[in-house]
Predict the 3D structure of the following.
Amino acid sequence: MKIAIATETNSENSAISPNAGRSPYYLIFDENKKLIESLDNPFRHGGGGAGFGVAKMLADNSVDIVIAGKFGDNMIGALESRGIKFYEKNGEAKKELQNIK
């Protein structure tokens, strides 16, 4: 199982990003909740379609669960179509990660 958290910085202690599609970073954790990768979000700037692009990027990285402050309708649809669970959370990434089972 892999968990991706949308964050403002590439640190585990970062605040969770309020906008999933435009989040600056995604931290990827393994099933033991150990940080295994930090991804720059190439879709954080530019026109529409960020949610679709991020959902594909996360699916390509075999992510099972995504955490962000808020998800747009298009990103929700893209995640659901790929079987990826998502949770809207606020606070510090590492702390919220501990609440995921």
Observations:
- Residues 3-97 form a domain with the Nucleotidyltransferase; domain 5 fold (CATH 3.30.420.130).
- The mean pLDDT is 95.
